[in-house]
Amino acid sequence: MALDGIHGHPDDVVVTVGSQQGLDLIARIFLDPGDVVVTEGPTYVTAIGTFSAYQAKIVHVPMDADGLIPQDLVETLARLQAEGRKVKLLYTVPTFQNPTGVTLNPVRRADVIEICRRAGVLVVEDRTVSRHQSRSATAWHGWPASSRRRCN
Ligand SMILES: Cc1ncc(COP(=O)(O)O)c(C=O)c1O
User: Fold this and answer.
1) Domain boundary assignment for the chain
2) Counting atoms of ligand 1 from 1, which one is nearest the CA of 152?
3) What one-character DSSP code corresponds to residue 127?
4) Ligand 1: distance of its center to the CA of 97 in Å?
5) Cβ contacts of residue 76 below 8 Å, gap of 6+?
6) Atom of ligand 1 lying closest to residue 97 CA
7) Region class of 84: left (phi > 0), else alpha (psi between -120 and 50), else beta
8) Cα–Cα–Cα angle for 74, 56, 91, nearest 5°?
9) What single DSSP character describes residue 125?
10) Taking burial as the number of CB atoms within 10 A of a residue's CB, which of 8, 40, 61, 117 is the most buried?
């Protein structure tokens, strides 16, 4: 974790047998039936299956060559709120995204975290692929602790 720029206390770490188990634990702990999980569109297909298994609804936010589009995230959250739907999580793969391979632009990272902080939406950053691909891609450690969770 320190190599990823994360200096957490051992008490903050939960060891799992892979990202998939981490996602399953997050879903089990945080999701209630009918909750919405917002994700990049498209996203890692098995994560969709995991969240769906807990009866969450998946809502996709469009991406472009710089990753998740913050204005579309704002509009999606506003629409869902107006519909009375509970958005629990943003599940995001911001670095070497699966399946697109796109990496979220640094300016947008700050925008996305601020949008989610204001909306009270927990952010789940999945760094599985980035960790395999590159040690130089640091984690999203600038995020406020209140909204920061890691998978694996
Ligand atoms: C974005 C993403 N998350 C999670 C996983 C699964 O990781 P693990 O094998 O550690 O469960 C993959 C595997 O390809 C992935 O691409």
Assistant:
1) 34-151
2) 10
3) -
4) 11
5) 38, 59, 61
6) 1
7) left
8) 50
9) E
10) 40
What the block records as the tokens of 117 is 């902080």
**pTM of the full structure:** 0.87
Cβ(147) to ligand 1 under 6 A? no
Q: Please name the amino acid found at residue 96.
A: F
pLDDT score for 89: 97
Fold of 34-151: Aspartate Aminotransferase; domain 2 (3.40.640)
pLDDT tens digits, 4-41: 777 889 998 999 999 999 999 999 999 999 999 999 99
Q: Supply 149's token pair.
A: 């969770």
Q: 18 in ligand 1 pocket by Cβ < 6 Å?
A: yes
- pLDDT category, 3, cuts 50, 70, 90? confident
CA distance 18 to 44: 15
Ligand 1 pocket member 130 (CB < 6 A): no
